[in-house]
Write a structure and sequence with these properties.
The relative contact order is 0.06. It contains five helices and no strands. The chain is mostly helical and 145 residues long.
């Protein structure tokens, strides 16, 4: 900042805020309350802690909205927020793609331990008359017996 208090850079430097440390203490108290409730303390003892947690979250978001509407965000800062949000969405999409990819990989490529057979084929065709695809025939086909 220069002497007049005007910013000489295009970024928004956030003022010190008490909300992160207060929220962390409230969450610690909430975790302790939940553990105590599971053991001995009645459930009404945890209600004030979660009320404080909600108040802290409300006040923190009030300050965030004030900063956003107060003209602190230049176009460069707004573009950075947008890019950060889009990268977050991309990471979530990739996370779910990896979950589905792992599921389809494990269900569509049979293992050697399963005698290279799909499980749904073994279950649907596994009868006493067709012992080639039954689950009981797997160890004998793998050489385990």
């Amino acid at each position: 900042m220069d002497r007049a208090g005007v910013s000489v850079h295009p970024f928004h430097l956030v003022d010190c805020s008490p909300w992160p440390i207060l929220l962390s203490f409230a969450m610690l108290s909430g975790a302790i309350s939940v553990v105590s409730w599971m053991n001995i303390v009645p459930v009404l003892a945890a209600a004030p802690v979660f009320g404080i947690l909600l108040v802290i979250l409300f006040l923190w978001w009030r300050d965030v909205i004030r900063e956003a509407k107060g003209g602190y965000h230049t176009t460069r800062v707004q573009r950075g927020i947008l890019i950060g949000f889009l990268l977050f969405l991309l990471s979530e999409v990739m996370l779910f793609v990896s979950f589905f990819w792992a599921f389809f990989h494990s269900s569509l490529s049979p293992n050697v331990e399963l005698a290279a057979l799909w499980l749904h084929i073994m279950v649907s065709f596994g009868s006493k008359t067709n012992s080639k695809h039954s689950i009981a025939a797997i160890p004998s086909r793998c050489g385990a017996t």
